[in-house]
Design goal:
- The protein starts with 12 loop residues before the first helix and ends in a 15-residue tail after the last helix.
- The longest helix is centred in the C-terminal third of the chain and has 14 residues.
- It is globular and about 50 Å long.
- The chain has a four-stranded mixed β-sheet with strand order 2-1-3-4, with helices on one face.
- It has two domains: about 70 residues, Arc Repressor Mutant, subunit A; about 80 residues, Glutaredoxin (3-Layer(aba) Sandwich).
- Strand 3 and strand 4 form a beta hairpin.
- Helix content is about 40%, strand content about 10%.
- It is α+β, with helices and mostly antiparallel strands.
- Helix 2 runs antiparallel to helix 3 and helix 4 packs across helix 5.
- The structure holds FE2/S2 (inorganic) cluster (FES).
- FE2/S2 (inorganic) cluster binds next to helix 6.
- The site of FE2/S2 (inorganic) cluster has 12 residues, from helix 6.
Length: about 190
């Protein structure tokens, strides 16, 4: 395969050959697929991609998507088209904490632009960029369904609502102190095991 997926880079067969998810991730993926009837396991693709992203430093390279396609017995294009549609999947390397600021109506009218500006200045990055230490990426996304708490942002499985500069300072400080990657799989996956 030599095609380049939008927003990513060319497929590298030797990188693909070296991909192996952890036992725990493989068990979780198997359990997610078993939730659906025979032949309908493609329905598990969204949560499986969250697991894949957590296993692969927070982003889905063409090689990781190809690996997922093999695990799920899907065509690679079926994985690419889903991964490239949703903003929650990253098709290029990102920081450990991806700050996804909602920019849709409720958040926009309640200061989303100021939130983006404040975070950008504080971390010295622009939208779409990652800090030099690899800790934070700033991203804007469409409505995250927490309009009542506008303006808000998501980082991994955590929602931060009614944002103020003080709240942003505090969450960035906490994430720095924790120093670990924030993933959607930080949600409780116990019921898949
Ligand atoms: S508009 Fe921001 S969460 Fe809905």
């Amino acid at each position: 395969m030599a095609e380049v997926i939008q927003g990513t880079r060319a497929f590298n067969p030797s990188t693909r050959a070296g991909i192996q998810f952890s036992e725990e991730a493989l068990k979780t993926i198997e359990a997610l697929m078993k939730r659906y009837p025979e032949g309908k396991h493609k329905s598990a693709l969204l949560p499986v991609l969250h697991v894949a992203q957590a296993e692969a430093d927070g982003w889905l390279s063409p090689e990781v998507m190809d690996y997922v396609a093999e695990l799920m017995k899907l065509q690679p294009i079926e994985v690419y088209e889903v991964a490239s549609f949703y903003s929650m999947y990253n098709l290029k390397p990102v920081g450990k904490c991806v700050l996804e600021v909602c920019r849709t109506s409720s958040c926009w009218t309640r200061g989303a632009e100021d939130v983006v500006d404040y975070i950008g200045k504080k971390l010295n990055i622009r939208e779409g960029e990652t800090t030099a230490d690899g800790m934070f990426t700033l991203k804007t996304v469409e409505c995250l369904g927490a309009c009542g708490g506008a303006p808000m942002l998501q980082c991994g499985a955590e929602y931060h609502e009614n944002l103020t500069e003080a709240k942003i300072d505090s969450l960035i400080e906490r994430y720095r102190a924790e120093g670990r990657r924030k993933c959607y799989t930080d949600l409780d996956y116990q019921n898949t095991k």
